[in-house]
Predict the structure of Glycerol-3-phosphate dehydrogenase [NAD(P)+].
Amino acid sequence: MTVAILGAGAFGTALAVALSANGPVTLWARDIGWGRDNPRLPGVTLPPTIRITDDLATATGADTLLLALPAQALGGFLADHAPLLDGKRLVSTAKGIDLSHLTGPSVLLSEACPRATIAVLTGPSFAADIARGLPTALTLACADADASRALQHDLSTPVLRLYRTTDVTGAELGGALKNVIAIAAGVAIGAGLGDSARAAIITRGFAEMTRLATHLGARPETLTGLSGLGDLTLTCTSAQSRNFRYGQALGARQPFDATTTVEGAATARAVAALARRLGQDMPIAAMVARLTEGRMTVDDAALHLMTRPLKEE
């Protein structure tokens, strides 16, 4: 079994470092001018068991391809390169919903690569922790139970533990939707609303996540696992989370680094559109969408949430 990571951002690079404990790994990047010290992951020097290349044909020669690409970039990448990926074991690590198609990465992959085995790797994790070898547990979602067991064996390490599920929809939506709620949690802290407000947003946000995911066929228990509640808790409570930091900057009315990928911002707009199409009530997601588009102020957002109708929980 050979493994390649497509995408050398912080998370893709961290996965390469972790999986190199099992054997040689290929890491594909559009630009490899940084040598073995990726500026996206400061303080981590890539071990010699990682082969770095900018030749996509070489990288896609591996049996298993982990696509560590931003959710909004995946569709365009597949439009250009799907023939190189079809027939492989494809594992998406993106946490988002495509704005153009209003679907998760697994649907984009299955439509572009019909002969491939599709899986999703998601759950509570930060790139820096994985690269440092800190214990991390993730969800591996694949509809094919046999393929899932094989991937679990091949991609687990002594400190990176994968837990299987066949509920791809639930795992994927948990990872995408928690980023939206993390922005809202960051807004609460940045605006000085306090930890109690953040706790309320996490709780009601989890209810929104579960409502939409189960409407789309997910199993409720998937949302209470690593890929749902676990990832939500981590992302809403740590400054390592880009989505939380972005929300915090919004709440404090401060600028945010425009070069940093914030998956939850685009996903919020996609979720709001999807919820309208499905007739689902997702007030926190709708609020985040309006905030990120500049169509609502922080003060108005707080008022909007606090004047929601009183009802049973």
About this structure: The chain has two domains: 3-166, 176-307.
